[in-house]
User: Fold these one by one.
Assistant:
Number 1:
Amino acid sequence: MASYELSSTLARFLDKHLCFPLLEFLQDKGVYNEEDIMRAKIALLQNTNMVDFAMDIHKELYQTDEVPATMMERRTEVVNRLRSLQKAVDPIIGCLSNSNVIRNFRHDRAFNLQFLKEEFDIGPEQIEALYQFAKFQFDCGNYSMASELLQAYKPLCTTSERNMSVQWGKLAADTLTQNYEAATEALLRLRESLDNQSFATPLMQLQQRTWLMHWSLHVFWNTENGKNALIDLFLQPAYMSAITINAQHLLRYLAAAVVVNRKRRNVLRELIKVIQQESYEYSDPITQFLECLFVHYDFDGAQQKLIECESVIEHDYFLTAIKSEFLESARLFIFETYCRIHQCINIDMLSERLNMDKEAAEKWIANLILSARLNAKIDSKAGTVVMGMQSSSMQESLAEKAKQLSVRTFTLANAVVGAPATKA
Amino acid sequence: MASRFWTAGSDSDEEEVDASEEENSSSEEESSSSSSSSSSGSDSSSDSDSDSDSDSDSDSDDSDAPKKGAARFLAGSDSDSDSDEDRRVVLKSAKDKRFSELTDTCDEIRNKMKINDWSAIQGLFDELNKRLERARKVSEAVGTPRVYVRMCVELEDFLNDTLANKDLKKKMSSTNAKALNTMRQRLKKHNTSDEFAEAVTKFRENPQEDEEEEEEEEESSSSSSESDTDGEREETEKRPAGAAKKKDKLLTMDSAEITYEMVAKKLREIVTSRGRKGTDKQEQVEMLQFLANVAKGVPQKLEVLLQLVGSLFDLSPGISNYMKVGLWKRCMLVMLEIMDTLQANEAIVLDDSAEPSEERTAEPVAGEDGKVRVWGNLVAFVERLDDEMFKSLQVIDPHTHEYMARLRDEPVFLALSQKVHDYLARIGDVRNQPKVALRLIEHFYYKTDAVYDAMRKLTMLQQHFYYKTDAVYDAMRKLTMLQQEEAAASAAAHPEGAVAAASAAAETAAAANTSNEPGEEQTADDKVALPVPLDFSMDESSTAAMKRLVGIVFTHGDERAKARAMLCTIYHKALHGDFHSARDMLLMSHLQDNVMLMDISTQILYNRSMAQLGLAAFRLGLISEAHSCLQELYGSGHIKELLAQGMAMGKFQDKTPEQELLEKRRQMPFHMHISMELLESSCLISAMLLEVPAMASSPLSVKKRVISKSFHRILDTYNRQTFTGPPETVRDHIMAATRALMRGDWSGAYGAVSALTVWQLVPQRESVLDMLKKQLKEEALRTYLFSYSAQYRSLSLDQLCTMFEMDEKAVYSIVSKMMIAEDLHGSWDQPTRTIVMHSIEATKVQSLAGQFADKATLMVELNERAYAFRTGGLRDDDDMGGGGGGRRGGRRGQDGQWEDDGGHGGRGRGRGPRLGAARMGLGQGGQDFGGHRRGGGGGGRGDRGGFRASGFSSNMTSGLPDRFQRRGPYRQQANPNMQALGSISRPGGGVGGGPGGGSYNRPLGGDRRDRGL
């Protein structure tokens, strides 16, 4: 199963801190050797400021109370830096915590700076320190604090590059504090600035779009309307091309979102096209499932893939929550497509296809018929489902066309004959 | 001989066999190692030089000199060489007489040439020929006297000059001009005739032989290299010796006396006289060669050598002709020597921005960074050499040994470029490095693996052969056998590389053979041996080489270089079957958007890449991709020109001679060609696979989408044939396959397609044929279902499986796909495993009525659009057209405007398809209604109608304010709609509807035509 495990691929596009939940999840699932994961965690933490945490893991991993000297050194280093930063940042925090000051801020950043300078004697160094401090706090795992600090810093930052990093930081911090509402907002704003930034090279834009999509996974799969937003975002041409160029594995999430989201059937065609186009680059059971079902009409294959999907989804940090939903929708997909091209189906066969026992399948179908989502009848004696036919005769369609023509011609004639007279 | 000497001097002495050469080389080493002019070193080097110069004389004097090596071969061409004299002593006096006659006539001709008197020349030329005949009778020689050949060449040159000089031509009297033309024709015939062609070319390559005779030097030499050639020339040849004598001043000096200053002065003299009228280029080259040997210090030597390369280039006759192979090789040798010198002396930097050497009188001292700067531009030389090689390959007949021999020079060139490239990398010249890298890429990109390997082995073989490392030789011999087989196999497998591979094989064979008789290789190779430097080795695989070089171009190159490198990579990837990444590269680089803005040769490269991409897609079974890649190339009808693989035999367009010349200059050498036949087959088969089911699906439909126009055209002609013979050409085969496929007979189709001989050129023949078989089965199934499903009430899955020999799953999948797309009106009955048809197949009347309704809709739409344009605002239309139809029309109208707006800038890119659709609709109209009764003619009229339609809508876009003219047709068009409605709404009146429409349509078409004119 590890072959379809995407964590390592995803990690390349994620922030260190955003990788952490993934590792935790993997540890729970026990896909990989636990020690390996612990080591990975330490490696991950090495460059952050969460030294204590790293130490804990180290102890657990090697079953000792000894901690390597490098870690201790790092710890003192971190603490020192914390102190110095704290000192540098104190005045500005004090001043910004005063709500009167904030109220005096305007949209004009230069004005804000001027204002601070005049009123409180806070210069660029302090403001820079504020940013550094926020970054430091973030590295320490103190995400909510970081988020607040960044919020405070935002009206003061002047360069657009810095502005971008602030937005990225905000998104990460909000995501990690599981404040998804704020994160969604941050995401939206970030996306806007990404699309609007004109200074970046196309390559950089591509890179950043890819990052954004990866980071957004955390947000989208955890919010109510996230799947919709995910589909919207991923199907944007710019982002779609980023997927096809840079991160084909994201198709899995897009596919899952589309399958689960019944209202978005309309994008299915587009999705299938992309999946097919990229199948030489990336394919996993989920995309293969769609391919089987909508390209090859290979229902046995789809069935097979669905079983594989189950375990893939189970081991995917983002998708595991929607497992049953996905399976249900997928089943419906199969059934619907099946019905479209059959006029008579054996229930036994169907139950096998749907991975249900016969009773349940019959009930399920009956439910579908009842809820008017299926135009069919069950022939219980023969054990078959007979589809109702909806055929329109040629005559009807011709009449329809003619009617339409007459209306259009009439209006046109009216316009041509009537209009010049009135106009002239 | 001189060149032989050079290489010996430039390489390490381990390889030396000849004792005297060893001596030379060691002295070279000395002089180069001690750049601060060690007198003894330079002394010995100049000594050895004068040795080589004196070779010629000593041999010419000494008629008993033993003949060996090249001499034997040259005896044939130089009839009366001294060495032959002793045999024909009796005839001597008569012979002399004849020759003096010949010479006299020649002198006379020269005189006439000076006054430009062509009629006199013509007469004299006749006389000359007569005399030649007589001289021949006397001398019994096989060859042609050199005086005569020389005359021919001079005449030809003069003729060309005169022809080029337009003013002169105008001034000529009519008789003179006539004579000129006659001379031109005769000389052309004469000089290219078998008898003289060889002699003439030989003379052109080595004209200096005559000049060297003048250098009289007393020193005799001990060395006996293959310099006999110089000895064999006419004693009777008289040349004004004055010029030669003058330059000899330096030559006769003792080399020890020659100072830096003298050399510098002479060099400067040569540089300033270069390119002036009346400068003897040949003489300059000679002088420079001499100077190179007496130069003091390495930097000066480099200067001289660089100048020498330039002068050698001057010898070649201009941009339209290619440099003679011998000359090219000499250039290569000098270049290699330069590179060796540079390699040996790291402190010297070649720089085209360094100060020219003119002001210096003493040796340049090292700058503060320990570097000595010398003016020179290696890259320009490399590029020139590459161009010349390309040009020669363009001109040489690819089916000759000459061509192969030329191809064998490629490794040396690669070695040189690689050296220059490494050198540039060493000195950190990132501006020029990509240029050389690109040249290398362009030598690699079209090579398949087999060809590349052959080339690599050839390189190794050449190295070992020329340096006579006997131990390796045996091993190589064995390898040769292997490689020959391999190359033969690859030649069969790769159409493009066949020649290269074959030549590589031939080369190794030749190398193996000639090495048995080492004396002969010189003559075989245009008297200039061109060894591949030992320190050169090609990368293991072409992919690795490409990757390395492309990286350099991408990081440092300019836009054009990047684009070319990208295209080469795409070609290379496609050639190696990596279609997807090649396609992605093409799409991501957005090359297709701006390729039209690039230079023509890049566009050709783009076309080549495109063709290769199509072939790759075809091999992988990606039919529609292959089709879209190839369609544009093939459908244009100018594929030869687009790929620069031959001139089009256009009957209709006539090109000016200049255009033709330009086009000739663009041609690809044969070994780089992409097989036309393969392209044609791939394109047509793809078209067939796409088109046949599409045609079957909608035989009568209005909105017929033509996928491949050229395919339709061919099919139409094929169908019109009264008698169809067995297939011969590619087209015949594919048309036969199409016929079969239309009936759903896949095995017949496969038989016809697989009978094509062109598959032998495809490396993965088996897999391609398998793929084709599979595709044919699928498409046959689809076609069968389209065509005959109406005849069935139900169809069993098993029966379909047996009919098409496909497995159940595949059939199921295809049929399901058709059901979903509503191509097939039926559905599966799962318990019985059958397809049950829902026969809602319309009757003929119904379908015709449907078509008519569609056409009427189209007209209404057009009218709505037109109205919208006339009233100005599209929104108005939207508001007014209350019904759903009206609104839709309005929106379409908007679309239309959108496209038209775009059309101003983007040249109707959006407009194309739209007009096409309109045209098709109307064209069909003509055929269906008008043509129903009147048989033929419908098509033609439809076409015209279509043409009108396009003119009509473009009229709208340009917004001409001519209301009257426009209102007319609108009304008329509005009418048929009514009529059509009438006929449709009347139940049972469908029969009347057809003719009614038809009868209307005809005048409409005529009407249009009138207005169109």
Note: The longest strand of chain A covers residues 342-346.
Number 2:
Amino acid sequence: MLAGRSASRAHALRAASHPPPPQASGFGPPAPSFAPDSPSEDASTAEAFALARTLARVAEEGKGGNTRALHVAPLVYWTRVMVLSTVTNRPQLRAMLARMEAEALGRHGATPAPGPGPGRSTWELLDFGDVVVHLQTADQRAFYDLEGLYADAEDIELDAVAAQDQAAGASYQVRL
Amino acid sequence: MIIDGTRLVVSDNSGAKEVECIKHKGRYAAIGDIITCAIKKGVRNSKVSPGQVVKAVVVETKKELRRPDGSTIKFDRNACVLVNPKGIPIGTRVLGFVTHELRAKQMLKIVSLAARIF
């Protein structure tokens, strides 16, 4: 049938334009796939990027060190962005968690997944679905080496935060 | 279905290879439950040693796990990941499979360290 022939040709054309992802070798998440995103995917990714930039800004304001945001969507399916930041002590970790929850709710209307709350550990995380925040002390960050595990993920530009805040007319003040 | 006496394979790089469940909550433990284990086999000069009592999270079971959409998933072995009393994994990498049911049970740290999530 003509419809069947055109459908199979469309399938072949689609297969040619979207090659299968390269085979992963060894341990670690699979290599990034290069299939283009749909418009809805682009919108969800943009929202995740915006939330990640907000959380990264909160981390920087709370004197979190070496803050990075990794775009892990090509590697894993369960989240889009991972934000990593280093804290020096547990009071700072708790304060940063509380501020992140408040900022995410105030600016983006996002709430983290319910959990037992910050315990006595030096590695805590916030799960916003598309964005996962990891707050660790320096020794924990070096020990677990999440950046090494997701080495194929691309860094999200965080310098856009300053320009974004200037455009939005941020009201927070820098204390000297 | 993990009960007292069940031997589980350790699917992380903590150094332990095989543990035996000695305590669980309820009638049996399933994927995502925390159990108390005694290490039976391990690698020398590692963070844990045979005879040590540790906590572990069950990540694979031979008994099938039903999902809300009606599908089931089961594995060829019973496996677990060792955690400390604060719930942080003792190893730095999870080498076997984990399921996304762990996310619903607030065990995203284990999911973050895993390479194969199903």
Note: The beta strands of chain A are 65-71, 81-87, 123-127, 131-137, 154-155.
Number 3:
Amino acid sequence: MADSGRIDEVAVIGNTDVTSTESENNIINTMVERGTSLLKKMEINVAEAEKRTGKNTVNMQETYTVYLIEIRPAETVPEGETPTAPDTLWRRYSDFELLRTYLLVTHPYIIVPPLPEKRAEFVWHKLAADNLDPDFVERRRVGLENFLLRVASHPVLSNDKIFFLFLTEEKGWREAVLETGFQDKVDSRIKSLSAMYRVKNPDKRFTELKLYSDELNSVISQLLRVRAKVADRLYGVYKVHGNYGRVFSEWSAIEKEMGDGLQSAGHHMDTYAASIDDILEEEEHYADQLKEYLFYTDAVRSVCRKHELIQYELEMVAQDLIHKKQQKEDLTTGTVRVFSLKGMTSKLFGQESQEQRESRLAALDQSIREGEETLKEKNTECQEFVRTACEDIERFKEQKDRDLREALISYAIMQISMCKKGIQVWSNAKECFNKM
Amino acid sequence: MSVTAPRCMASSGQKPIAEILHPLSGGGDEQQQQQQQQQQLSVTVSVVVGGDKEASLTNGAPVETPSPASTSSLFNRLQLDDDPEADVRDPYAETAETRDLFVTVDDPKKHVSTMETYITYRVSTKTSRVEFDLPEYCVRRRYQDFDWLRMKLEDSQPTHLIPPLPEKFVMKGVVDRFSEEFVETRMKALDKFLKRVADHPVLSFNPHLNAFLTGKDLNKRQGLALLTKVGESVKHVAGGYKLRPRPAEFCAMGEYLDTFNQKLGTIDRIAQRILKEQSEYLTELREYGTVYSSWAASEEELRRPLEGVGGCVATCCGALDDLGDGMSQDFLPVLREYVLYVESMKNVLRKRDQSQAEYEGRLEAAILRKQEDRTPMPAEVEKCQDKVECFNADLKADWERWQSNKRQDFKQLLTGMADKNIRHYEKCQAAWESLLTVLQDKQAEDKTHETN
């Protein structure tokens, strides 16, 4: 997936008999662009995973996995010299989650890269559902590294102080995050939901984006689900062929001239049956690439929701201002609006004095002035949001097109490799049959 | 080519083993086989008393119906036979007045068929006995039949001395079986035999004689008789069959067939299971392809690549479909044919075993009999032995042929299976490779656009 920046760590997805052009392509079209932002300055990778046990917040023993993050200044190493030792620290998954939440809140107009899944989903094989399963841990390690690299290469996010601390400060990081008080900025669910239904002038760009994001989410979910079923079935097909191995071996025992050919053909059938394990393991990488974009859709949706909220608030402020101005006008012109409380009370209790009116007017004026200020602020906020969000959306779209095409290419390469293996095995078997 | 003993017809190389009649079905030797065939064609020897039309045996041999002249000649002959000379010769002969069963053997005729050449004699009967439906009969019988009759009489009347028959075995090349002299001599002897039997107060009432004279289902009873006779010997040998197992080489064949059959069954089951799994895989794969296509609809830049992937998957589905069809049409049926082949081979082995059992049973019985009354080795036993030997030789030759064919057939079958799978993967690979070119070209295009 993501390139750590070092040539030797280019992730060639699964396929070992990749041609030089294909390999070139892989390097050129890495998920994350080299030489941008933070990655200009440092190399980041998540090197290892380790199991730890400790007491959690409710004072209970738990086992968890920690990941080792290495950082190294991005410098060319002169010939013959060993690169400088990296700075390292350990983080667990919940630390990553905290970081991400912080980034989401602090940069609401940015489509924040997703984390790898917390629990294994869309599994085709029951064995893969275990969180402590080494294959799952390994894939998560890769996913976490990818996350860090994506953030580090983002024009906005890479400059975030907390992110920098995440990579450099092991001990005091959590406190630093909490000190920012970002939790206060978290919008309540209810607020954002109500905003969704009450925005009067929704921005078409964002509604379309939201729609697209939902569609993408749905289609990728479906794809992953069906892919898991396909993998399961394919596994069955390959494994049943293994039975040929056994029966050919037994049969060869009662044959004279046919025996050798049958026996060796049987071995090839065993090879064929065994080959599916690696094939499907490789395909998991492809599934992970799809999953990343599945989770990305959540980030896109939250940007859209934030926009709705801002829009809604803007509309509220504008509404409020109009209302106040109307009030002033009423007061000035002495218009009594039917069904207004003021009108009723004045009717009931008599007209108010000039003094009272004047003080009320002054208060209103003040309020209007404040309202206008707020409106200006909100407008600016909204415009700013829209500007930055649209920028990021564009960036995201390009990234998505690039990445997914790359994923499809590597998928095609995987399929070709699988076909070649199949042809090889059956050709070998055919040779054996011919010798019968 | 099989090795055949000169006299052995039953298992000649011209006839496939499987078509040889089961010995217990009455085809123990060629004569009985012939009569079995006659019986199977369900033709009774029709006897027409009077009339010119000639009834014929199923093998085309005409039966000379007694013309009025011959009827009288019968009488004449009877009359002639009633000469004192005959009476003197035959102590059992009753006086002409009291005798109510008159038999004559005459009119020898040569019959030529594809299988053999032999002589039949006319056996004429005149009687007033109630055991006979008609007063007169005229049948054609050959030596075999007389032999049978004698055998039957011996069995059913062990206390009586049964008149002898002329010598059965004739040395070929020494004596011409078909010379007039020989035939005449034989005929007379047969005639004498029959007359003595007919004149015997006890033997003449034997139902076998009745059958013989009237041309009734000699075969069926013969078959049954054979059955009982063989039944005894089989009983005798049934324990004996166990005592004397198959010769090692046939044992090995049997074992091989059993194991081979088992393996065929397993392979069939595996192939079917694969087809089932592939079919389920195909169902999922089809849906998988459609998801890519529907995704393509909501994309712009990615539309072509996604449609391409969807198309590839669809192509693979088609290829998989073809593979499945090929396997179920070409592979499975041939496999199943071989299961039947194995079954029929096993049947042949069983027949061989039964033939051997019969032979051994008869041999034992014959040996016992030989010890008792010094009768020569019956022809059937020798014929049985011949049959068994032919059977064995033919079976061995057939086995080799079968093994060789099996090897060729399975080589072809399995390489065919490999070919089908190779073709399937080739089709899939081609589809993905062409997609890859398109995707990568587009990518290169984009790259150059970006740098520009």
Note: DSSP finds ten helices and five strands in chain B.
